[in-house]
């Protein structure tokens, strides 16, 4: 079966087939869709901020798992921790919809959010338009009263943040959209029919996706649809052909790989493969490490402990490894129901931004080198830009000498630390590689407190 594009969305197939006078026309097949070049801005930037915010931010409780799946863990999967939490804290007839009135967002200041995200050193953000609970953070024409304008904030959260990002920053604005809805009766019925009926897709999922693209023109469409149904159910290739051919963002938009079961790490604009994905070598296609500062949850958790959050050292180590292996990192924060971004998230974002303010040249616009991490010092990672190789050093050498096996120096090689004015002395290793002598730099003269970056120029193997 060819999906819903021809049988349920005749208008979608029509715009795909209409010719234009020039330019490539992508067909609704994976072979054609996957041939589209990735817009260059996405690979250049390396760092994005993910924001998970919705009705799930009201209970904001996650028990050894993510809080944004609260509804289905409570009502559908009936996990004891979630069932007992509701039993002990809410009246017996309380429904998930009752949480929506407390999704107040009274402290949501989109301009303050924009400033914070800009300060992080990121190049793009991805904001939740709709998660699996079905609640839309914009006044959707097809969500009736289950949206942020009709209940809860009574504001267009997507629109306000979009305006702030595009007027106050130089960040790219992207939107996350969950195709499925766990407890939507139409979705449940289509599932029971083994995805041979398309009532949910025709009346809810795809109209919402077209709506946010036409209304907010996101630079990224981050789909979450690899959960249960195949892409032929969703009509994913028909939508992507329209997105790349005729949508208002056709030339700039970037998409991921979660368009149906078994599509991850195979199709789409770039790969995410799985949450917190970290390959062991450079993948054959551009990829993204989609990860969380809170180690266990995407949405805010009131019951999180300090040790549940990545330290700045851990966060930078993940980021550096990701970029060295050719990926981008999409770093998630979960705002509270009132619109406050907790201080622990703010601190991490500003710490990353301060580090990027010094070392950004070793990140933005770089490519993987022939070696990603050093065999002699495994916590030293490499990136490359033009003829310069960057060595990103996670651990300061205890004896003052950094011995690396990968760089092959010449008589003209120079070694410098970004942010430090002095030049580093070095020696060629007899067995190959280089010994770099670290001077005794006073702590107040160090450019950063962690993850130092050396520039290696005029290498034999650059």
TrEMBL record:
The keyword Signal applies. Gene3D superfamilies: Glycosidases, Golgi alpha-mannosidase II. Coiled coil: none annotated. Residues 372-456 form the Alpha-L-fucosidase C-terminal domain. It is an enzyme of class 3 (hydrolase). Residues 1-23 form the signal peptide. It catalyses: a neolactoside IV(2)-alpha-Fuc-nLc4Cer(d18:0) + H2O = a neolactoside nLc4Cer(d18:0) + L-fucose; a neolactoside IV(2)-alpha-Fuc-nLc4Cer(d18:1(4E)) + H2O = a neolactoside nLc4Cer(d18:1(4E)) + L-fucose. Residues 25-361 form the Glycoside hydrolase family 29 N-terminal domain. Its EC number is 3.2.1.51. It holds the Pfam family Alpha_L_fucos. One of its GO terms (cellular component) is lysosome. InterPro entries: FUC_metazoa-typ, Fucosidase_C, GH, Glyco_hydro_29, Glyco_hydro_29_N, Glyco_hydro_b. The keyword Hydrolase applies. GO terms for molecular function: alpha-L-fucosidase activity. One of its GO terms (biological process) is fucose metabolic process. Keywords: Glycoprotein, Glycosidase, Hydrolase, Signal. Belongs to the glycosyl hydrolase 29 family. Alpha-L-fucosidase is responsible for hydrolyzing the alpha-1,6-linked fucose joined to the reducing-end N-acetylglucosamine of the carbohydrate moieties of glycoproteins. Homotetramer. This is alpha-L-fucosidase.
């Amino acid at each position: 079966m060819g999906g819903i594009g021809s049988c349920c969305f005749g208008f979608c197939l029509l715009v795909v087939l209409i010719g234009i006078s020039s330019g490539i026309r992508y067909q609704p097949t994976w072979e054609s869709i996957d041939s589209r070049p990735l817009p260059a801005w996405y690979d250049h930037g390396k760092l994005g901020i993910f924001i998970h915010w919705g009705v799930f931010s009201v209970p904001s409780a996650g028990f050894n798992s993510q809080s944004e799946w609260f509804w289905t863990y409570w009502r559908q999967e009936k996990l004891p921790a979630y069932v007992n939490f509701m039993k002990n804290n809410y009246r017996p007839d309380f429904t998930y919809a009752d949480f929506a009135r407390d999704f107040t967002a009274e402290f949501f200041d989109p301009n303050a959010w924009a400033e914070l995200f800009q300060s992080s050193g990121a190049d793009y953000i991805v904001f939740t338009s709709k998660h699996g609970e079905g609640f839309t953070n914009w006044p959707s024409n097809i969500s009736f009263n289950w949206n942020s304008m009709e209940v809860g904030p009574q504001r267009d959260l997507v629109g306000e943040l979009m305006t702030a990002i595009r007027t106050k920053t130089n960040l790219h604005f992207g939107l996350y959209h969950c195709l499925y809805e766990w407890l939507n009766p139409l979705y449940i019925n289509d599932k029971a029919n083994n995805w041979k009926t398309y009532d949910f897709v025709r009346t809810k999922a795809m109209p919402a996706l077209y709506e946010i693209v036409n209304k907010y023109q996101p630079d990224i469409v981050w789909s979450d649809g690899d959960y249960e149904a195949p892409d032929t159910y969703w009509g994913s290739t028909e939508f992507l052909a329209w997105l790349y051919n005729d949508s208002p963002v056709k030339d700039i938009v970037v998409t991921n790989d979660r368009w149906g079961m078994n599509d991850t790490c195979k199709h789409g604009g770039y790969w995410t493969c799985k949450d917190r994905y970290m390959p062991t070598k450079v993948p054959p296609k551009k990829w993204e490490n989609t990860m969380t500062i809170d180690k266990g949850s995407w949405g805010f958790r009131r019951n999180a402990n300090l040790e549940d959050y990545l330290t700045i050292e851990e966060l930078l180590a993940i980021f550096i490894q990701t970029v060295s292996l050719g990926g981008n990192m999409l770093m998630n924060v979960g705002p509270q129901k009132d619109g406050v971004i907790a201080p622990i998230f703010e601190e991490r974002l500003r710490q990353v931004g301060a580090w990027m303010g010094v070392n950004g040249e070793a990140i933005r616009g770089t490519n993987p080198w022939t070696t990603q991490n050093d065999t002699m010092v495994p916590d030293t990672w490499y990136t490359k830009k033009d003829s310069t190789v960057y060595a990103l050093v996670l651990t300061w050498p205890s004896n003052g000498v950094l011995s690396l096996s990968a760089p092959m120096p010449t008589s003209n090689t120079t070694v410098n630390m970004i942010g430090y004015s002095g030049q580093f002395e070095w020696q060629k290793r007899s067995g190959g590689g280089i010994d770099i002598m670290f001077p005794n730099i006073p702590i107040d003269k160090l450019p950063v407190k962690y993850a130092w970056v050396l520039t290696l120029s005029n290498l034999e193997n650059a």
